[in-house]
Amino acid sequence: MRQVIDQGGTGSSRRSFCARQGWRLAALGIAAIVAAPLLLVFSGWLQPEGEVWRHLADTILGGLIVNTLLLLAGVGIGVLLLGVGLAWLTTLCEFPGRRFFEWALMLPLAVPAYVFAFVVLGVFDFSGPVQTFMREAFGADSGLPNVRSTGGVITVLVLVLYPYVYMLTRSAFLTQGRGTLEAARILGLGPWGAFFRVALPMARPAIVAGVSLALMETLADFGTVAVFNYDTFTTAIYKAWFGFFNLQAASQLASLLLLFVALGLIGESRLRGRARYHETSRTSQPARQPLPGYRAWLATATASLVFSFAFLLPLVQLLIWAWSVLAEDMDGRYLGLLGHTLMLGAIAALLTVSGALLLGLVRRRHPDRLTGSMVRVATLGYALPGSVLAVGVMLTFTGLDNFLNLLSRLIYGTSPGQILGGSLFALLMAYLVRFLAVAFGPIEGGLNRIRPSLAEAARTLGATPYQVLRRVYLPLLRPGLLTALLLVLVDVMKEMPATLLLRPFGWDTLAVRIYEMTSEGEWERAALPSVTLVLLGLLPVLLLVRRSGYGHSRGRKA
Amino acid sequence: MKRLIQTLMLITATTLAAPVVSAEQIVVYSARNEHLIKPVFDRYTQKTGVEIKYITDKEGPLLARLKAEGANTPADMLITVDAGNLWHAAQEGVLAPLESETLLANIPAHLRDPQKRWFGLSVRARTIVYSSERVNPGELSSYEDLADPKWRKRLCLRTSKKVYNQSLVAMMMERLGKEQAEEVVRGWVANLAVPPFSNDTKAMEAVLAGQCDVTIVNTYYFGRMQSKDPAIKLALYWPNQADSGVHVNVSGAGITRHAKHKQAAIDLLEWLSSTTAQEMFAGLNMEYPVNPEVETAPQVQAWGDFKGDDTNIAKAGELQTEAVMLMDRAGYR
Amino acid sequence: MDNLLELNDICCRYEQSNVVDGLTLHMAPGSLSCLLGPSGCGKTTALRAIAGFQPLCGGAIRLAGDLVSASDFSLPPEKRGLGMVFQDYALFPHLTVADNIGFGLGMDRRRPARTGRIATLLELVGLTGYGRRYPHELSGGQQQRVALARALAPEPRLLLLDEPFSNLDVDLRERLASDVRAILKHEGIAAVFVTHDQHEAFVMGEQIGVMNGGRLRQWDSAFNLYHEPADRFVADFVGQGRFLHGRLVEPEVVETPLGRIIGNRAYNWPKGCGVEVLLRPDDVLIDGDSEFRGRVVGRAFRGAETLYTLQMEQGG
């Protein structure tokens, strides 16, 4: 008897160790994959680049920092107002067209920022059709504001990035249910008071997640600001790299950017403190407030305006441009571009979402500091300018290659040459590093809504951890997983710098084609791949839209 | 342990690794865009049966990759769209010097590396474009002259972040000296009608729309606009004909130090400098061939002959960093 | 070896403090035990340790003689063959009632044996016909029954119930408690359940452990807990009562302000030492001729009885 117990004991003990620590090791692995390029970026500091720094500090750095802060403030406020405001209108109010706008307002997500930027410039700049028409119609001074300005850049970024805030806030409002808002009303708050003091604070994690995604993208953006020739901190990074041929100094600058983001994220979580945001009971459809009279039409007008500018305008303009070059550019290779784009997007989305799911589950099982910081590191990749990140990933894999070659030379006497660098694997890892944060948000949100006792109940009913994942977590996480998958899919299809640098030979995508054309200033010829990208991005967004009614329309099934 | 490593390597090699490059291939890292190289490569493959694989990206990332890959690089050739980056690649030691009579014969000395590590393949002239409605060509003379107060609020420029402008200023520093070059750039900035544009086409559109009267662009951008609208109210002006000549840059190539198909790559490079290839290589983008034997395209010929700067273009790379710093000091964004 | 469950000196730690400290108890097969105590006393932690969710920092837990938990070892919960009913029921919102109950059966969904077992359990908990509903379409009491049925479905050797009735209203609570007890007895399943409510404990538990500060204060029958509390905490926590200061005058006689009380056993403490005497409400009889007079200062009507709080004139 004794022997039997011991055998069973040690065996199970090892298994349970693996079950517990193995997950964590896997999470550690993911964090390491993300951390390696980031560390390489920080390793730029090993070699002091005093001269470049002195020059930048003496000349342009101050202005760049001011520009960047202005941009952050503008975009932050803009996406907050637009994202939260529209989410509030479409979930808690009733106005003409509400059903349409509820999903239509997500569509701008499908428009790549750099594409939107060159469309806006093409249409609204001094030499564009709008100002030309105004000049011809009303004389020399059109009275329109200059689009190549801080305000112009902010507007463009806000219109492209607000859907993050809108989507996350909207689902937060939907899951809040009626109860808390009604409780607030009973306690004497008006509808506005209830919104500001209950609905808004409860949606705070979602709002913060959305706004920080938008701000990270703003910080990392180069394509959009370059179109406007608006100099931000990333400009200094690229100047150090391309202008001064100094990748070290560029890494140092990029690492400062990362540090800034990390501090911001830590600061936010400190501010949030120990308050908990679990939703309390089962969800019920929120009661929509019908807006009275002119206010309803005002809401419709606002939503239409945002929708037209952020989505219809670029779509129509791109279609017009694309039409003019359709005959010239539409050939068999186009299908190849399309295929590669979709395939890379799909594989990367699956991979990234699996990684994010793993991180989420491990953090749930081990709510300690170490795991917390692992997760934080793993979601930092989003804040790094694409090219810098791409080089970091590239350096990681060429470093690995060199090591493997050395090993092989020692063992076999020959070196196989390039193994991982230039492979699909390296590119997929780059996507993982960059978009883990995007996938992690919705998954973490979904996990937070699952009570821990559900997993425990499953365990006592004989389910192994793997079965718990398959039979409890995955079905319950379905909406979050789907959101994450589609967001990453859209983002990967739009991604440019990492795709350019790391794609294997022949793996050209639509984004690559857009780069090639825009870098030569051939906007019209960039329009065909751009509009294809927008339409491709539209499919997942529409799919998402059909599913995102989950909170209230799935009633029986949910 | 050995077996394990062997298996692991096999697995990585078969499932994840980049495709193994065979002998009948050349691998190119190119900063020149696909539509400007693919037709030429296709022709070569048709002629010789040698397959050419390439990836395109900006120079910076390509060079970083080439450097990091070191001896393991699959790349045989690096193509850029300016001399500065070739100079820098050579500085970094990723390009191999070549002994090729053909290349030396086909390419003028000032358009290739004195140490034979890279070679210009097409010439890009950066010149003045003016509004034919509002500017009398008699007003124009040189790049420096655009700093004159008479051009106040009449000048448009592309951003200083583009390497074409960095090369232009670098060559001006070589010609005029640092102080005077900085004076000129300051004069330009003072004359700007609107903040710099992100590309040459936008700058020309601004001239066309009346925001300003003159700008500095690469000729092929002008050519593209002219092709779309032959009656366009813009015209080219060749500056500095009395002295140094028009600023020229090259799109060029070099063979990598660790090329796996070195001879094949040299063959390709020599072919690219030959009369047959030159016509196509330059013609695809309305650039000027480097090979003096080759005639330019008719539309390009119509812009007239000009005297180009014959200072060795390697200077553009050498002075690029200083040129960027100078422009930062002068407030040229 | 006859014990179904043995906890030997177990301790559980949470953020550097011992939440359960040196807990030892033994349970026979088929018996119903209860852990009773105020919130934060460690009773739920102990239950979670038995289930395998809470690692031990010392001691051992054995199920039917097999070691399942020790400081360096923990058999995964799914291998312990236990059932558990959670305080929040933890019903799977994405599954129907029938699928919830069938979750632990792990058989092919269409196997007749499975459907048969589910039907049996639905009948057992009085929810026949509810199989196709979703949890959120049921009332609290119904959800509770589903949770019980789900836990019973795989025929566990021991059922753990964590505050199973705390989310229900009083009326339902008592009815369900005795229903559950009847079901468990009928099925012959042993159960440990945790509560802070002594009425529940008295209804359900054959053996009741009173816990406080992570320690087991008394492990006994309900009757003994009430009438023979092991220490002052148990006396206070279980049932109503007041303490009277007194002095031991004989091994079985205590002198109190209410006169001499003669007990049913002898205490070997030194004569004349101060003691405290627990006085339960039902120990007091109304006697109009008594020499003791009290003033009614509080009255609580409880239907069948009324509890009066008296202020003694002697100042006791």
Oligomer: heterotrimer
Total strand segments of chain C: 17
Count all strands of chain B and give the number: 9
Portion in helices of chain B = 40-55%
Shape, per Cα inertia axes of chain C: globular
List SSEs of chain C in N-to-C order.
EEEHEEEEHHHEHEHEEHHEEEEEE
Return the average pLDDT of chain B rounded to an integer.
91
Q: What order do the helices and strands of chain B follow?
A: HEHEHEHHEEHHHEHEEHHEHHH
User: Quick one: overall form of chain B?
Assistant: globular
Indicate the CATH topology of the largest domain in chain C.
Rossmann fold
Q: Which two protein chains have the largest interface (Cβ within 8 Å of the partner's Cβ), and how many residues from each?
A: A-B, 68 and 62 residues
Whole-Å distance between the termini of chain B? 58 Å
Structural class of chain C: alpha+beta
Task: State the helicity of chain C in percent bands.
Answer: 10-25%
CATH architectural designation of the largest domain in chain C? 3-Layer(aba) Sandwich
Taking all residues together, what is the mean pLDDT of chain C?
86
Secondary structure layout:
The complex is a heterotrimer of chains A (558), B (333) and C (316).
Chain A: H1 2-42, H2 50-58, H3 61-92, E1 93-94, H4 98-104, H5 113-124, H6 129-138, H7 150-186, H8 191-202, H9 204-220, H10 223-227, H11 233-243, H12 247-272, E2 289-290, H13 293-329, H14 332-365, H15 369-378, H16 386-412, H17 424-448, H18 452-460, H19 465-494, H20 497-502, H21 510-519, H22 523-547, H23 550-553
Helix pairs in contact in A: 1-12, 1-14, 1-15, 1-16, 3-4, 3-7, 3-9, 5-7, 5-13, 7-8, 7-9, 9-12, 11-12, 13-22, 14-17, 14-19, 16-17, 17-19, 18-19, 19-22, 21-22
Chain B: H1 2-15, E1 25-30, H2 34-48, E2 51-56, H3 59-69, E3 77-80, H4 83-91, H5 101-106, E4 119-131, E5 155-156, H6 163-176, H7 178-191, H8 200-209, E6 214-218, H9 219-228, E7 234-237, E8 247-255, H10 262-273, H11 275-283, E9 288-289, H12 298-301, H13 314-318, H14 320-330
Parallel strand pairs in B: 1-2, 1-3, 5-6
Antiparallel strand pairs in B: 3-8, 4-6, 4-7, 4-8, 4-9
Chain C: E1 5-14, E2 17-27, E3 32-36, H1 43-51, E4 58-63, E5 66-70, E6 73-74, E7 82-85, H2 97-102, H3 112-124, H4 140-152, E8 158-162, H5 170-187, E9 190-195, H6 198-204, E10 207-212, E11 215-220, H7 222-227, H8 232-237, E12 242-250, E13 253-256, E14 259-262, E15 274-279, E16 294-301, E17 306-312
Parallel strand pairs in C: 3-9, 3-10, 7-8, 8-9
Antiparallel strand pairs in C: 1-2, 1-4, 4-5, 5-6, 10-11, 12-13, 12-15, 13-14, 16-17
Helix pairs in contact in C: 3-4, 5-6
